[in-house]
Specification:
Layout: E1 5-11, H1 19-34, E2 47-48, H2 50-57, H3 60-64, H4 70-79, E3 84-91, H5 103-120, H6 122-125, H7 144-147, H8 151-160, H9 163-176, H10 178-184, H11 189-196, H12 207-223, H13 227-253
Parallel strand pairs: 1-3
Antiparallel strand pairs: 1-2
Helix pairs in contact: 1-5, 5-13, 8-13, 9-13, 12-13
Length: 260
């Protein structure tokens, strides 16, 4: 049948673009917020119906945003109750832009805009709070040939060549703001210190631990009345994102025959 918003799914390599940010941050948080598993909510290759397009044009958040971000459109589509569909597009041929070199700017934008949306639109996610069910949206693909690709080739190879830089991003970011983390997230300090004393190739930071960190930072973002702190929270989350990327690459590396 016809749908109002079509979102892509495709193969993207962790060493070439910001897919790690999408897979490990935006996708799970977006799915939890709306209860729908849109695989690439901030992909630029999306299609919309005429009626939904007019909703985008009249949306104040989108029009007032200093930087238009694709996830904003996907969020408005779901908030308006639009019918949505994922489609398989194969491999995305993206210009090489190693994310570890642009992490500060990219993650600050991705987390900042998303957190701001959540803060402004409690009505979008309030009914989903506490509900662990994520609804699929009719995902098409991947074909068997694509699905047979080794996850190690897609994830680990792209991260391991820059593993020292990923770990440096985590450790320097953590050390630079250690007093803030200690005073604000005392319940997580044991986890933070364990990560800080790990070696990059042996780093363990599970998806559950990462989720606890993301939601702790989001909770702080929603509660603080200090506008300077609120503005800096996304960037203060960045070191732990770097640690999660590296830990995920380690997980995939150790499961040699894991396919896409």
């Amino acid at each position: 049948g016809e749908v109002q918003y079509v979102s892509p799914n495709y193969i993207r390599y962790y060493g070439r673009d910001d897919v790690g940010m999408i897979s490990l941050f935006t996708f799970p948080l977006f799915s939890a917020m709306f209860g729908k598993g849109m695989r690439f909510p901030n992909a630029g290759e999306f299609a919309v119906s005429r009626s939904l397009f007019h909703n985008f044009l009249s949306d104040n958040d989108i029009s007032a945003s200093a930087l238009s971000y694709e996830e904003q459109y996907a969020a408005v589509a779901l908030a308006k109750g639009a019918s949505v569909q994922d489609v398989w597009l194969g491999e995305k041929m993206h210009k090489k832009n190693p994310p570890v070199t642009t992490l500060d700017a990219y993650f600050k934008v991705a987390a900042g805009i998303f957190f701001e949306q959540i803060d402004k639109h409690k009505d979008w996610w309030d009914t989903k709070a506490g509900n662990a069910d994520i609804e699929g949206i009719g995902f098409n693909g991947p074909p068997d040939l694509d699905a047979a690709r080794l996850a190690n080739d897609i994830v680990s190879d792209g991260v391991e060549s820059d593993s020292d830089e990923w770990f440096k991003n985590f450790r320097e970011g953590y050390q630079n703001d250690k007093d803030y983390y200690k005073n604000t997230f005392s319940d997580l300090l044991f986890l933070f210190e364990r990560l800080n004393t790990s070696r990059s190739g042996e780093l363990i930071f599970t998806s559950k631990e990462w989720a606890s960190v993301v939601f702790a930072f989001l909770k702080r973002y929603l509660e603080t009345q200090d506008l300077i702190e609120k503005q800096n929270i996304p960037l203060r989350l960045k070191p732990f994102f770097a640690a999660r990327v590296l830990a995920f690459a380690n997980e995939v590396r150790d499961r040699k025959n894991l396919t896409f």
